Structure formats: structure tokens, C-alpha cells
């Protein structure tokens, strides 16, 4: 069950602000409020979905394709493809997800350490 009061839903409804990097019909990208790397951006689809699996199972293909094309658009915009980046999505309790609206983290700008 999707929680309409999660913080990213509020950002999408423009009830709270974000430091926007890119927005289009299907997606919004903004800087993480508590960056874990020199560059730390979050990307969210505008589609109501709580996890990656929820998004892939329930969104239309054009929506899914557009979202992931937008991830690459942001990578180009920030000029991080050559030096590299890491894309992460946390899902559910074991994945350590805090905000229950599907999002990707794009981490870059320095060497990102190993998870363990
Ligand atoms: P996750 O643990 O994958 O759910 O990540 C949630 C992320 O959202 C964390 O990295 C937080 O720092 C970030 N975050 C929480 N609130 C905000 C906000 N208002 N604006 C930007 N980033 C946020």
C-alpha cells in the first residue's frame, strides 16, 4: 500500500521544496539532502510506486523507459559518465529503504567505496 504522505510524494506535489536537477513529464531528479558522496542525486518517477519492483510491475513501459533514459540524461548533464558513478536503489526493510517511493541514488564525484 503506497503511503501518499511520504516525503517524495510531498516533493512531487510541491508541498516541500527540492534542489532540482532535472524534471520532465515522467520523472524528477534532485540533490539528496544528506549527501553520501560529492555528487548525490535522487531520481524518482512521478508514477505512484513504493519500490523498484512495484514500478516495474505496474507502470507502463513508456514510463519505465522514460525514467531510465532520464537517469542517463542526468548522467550526461553532470558529465560523470567518463569518471564513473554508482546507481543504487534500496527496497524494503532488508534493502534499508527509508522513503517508500521508488527512487534511485546516483553517487559520483569521487571514488565510491565498497558496500562491505
Ligand atoms: P533510502 O534510504 O534509499 O530510502 O533513501 C532516502 C534518501 O532520501 C536518503 O538518502 C535521504 O538523505 C534522502 N532525503 C530524505 N528527505 C529528503 C529531502 N527532503 N530532500 C532530499 N533528499 C531527502
Structure description:
This protein is α+β, with helices and mostly antiparallel strands. It has a single domain (7-108), classed as HIT-like (HIT family, subunit A, 2-Layer Sandwich). 30% of the residues lie in helices and 22% in strands. It has four helices and five strands, in the order αβββααβαβ. The protein has helices spanning 7-12, 52-58, 61-78, 92-95, and strands at residues 20-23, 27-31, 39-45, 85-88, 104-108. It has a five-stranded antiparallel sheet with strand order 1-2-3-5-4, covered by helices on one side. β1 (20-23) and β2 form a beta hairpin. The longest helix has 18 residues, at 61-78.
Helix-strand blueprint:
Blueprint: H1 7-12, E1 20-23, E2 27-31, E3 39-45, H2 52-58, H3 61-78, E4 85-88, H4 92-95, E5 104-108
Antiparallel strand pairs: 1-2, 2-3, 3-5, 4-5
The structure holds adenosine monophosphate.
Amino acid at each position: 500500500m503506497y503511503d501518499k504522505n511520504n516525503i517524495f510524494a510531498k516533493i512531487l506535489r510541491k508541498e516541500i521544496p527540492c534542489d532540482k536537477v532535472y524534471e520532465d513529464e515522467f520523472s524528477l531528479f534532485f540533490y539528496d539532502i544528506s549527501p553520501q558522496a560529492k555528487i548525490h542525486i535522487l531520481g524518482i518517477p512521478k508514477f505512484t510506486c513504493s519500490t523498484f519492483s512495484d514500478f516495474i510491475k505496474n507502470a507502463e513501459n513508456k514510463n519505465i523507459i522514460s525514467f531510465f533514459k532520464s537517469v542517463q540524461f542526468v548522467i550526461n548533464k553532470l558529465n560523470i559518465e567518463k569518471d564513473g558513478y554508482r546507481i543504487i536503489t534500496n527496497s524494503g526493510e532488508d534493502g534499508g529503504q527509508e522513503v517508500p517511493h521508488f527512487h534511485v541514488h546516483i553517487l559520483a564525484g569521487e571514488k565510491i567505496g565498497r558496500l562491505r
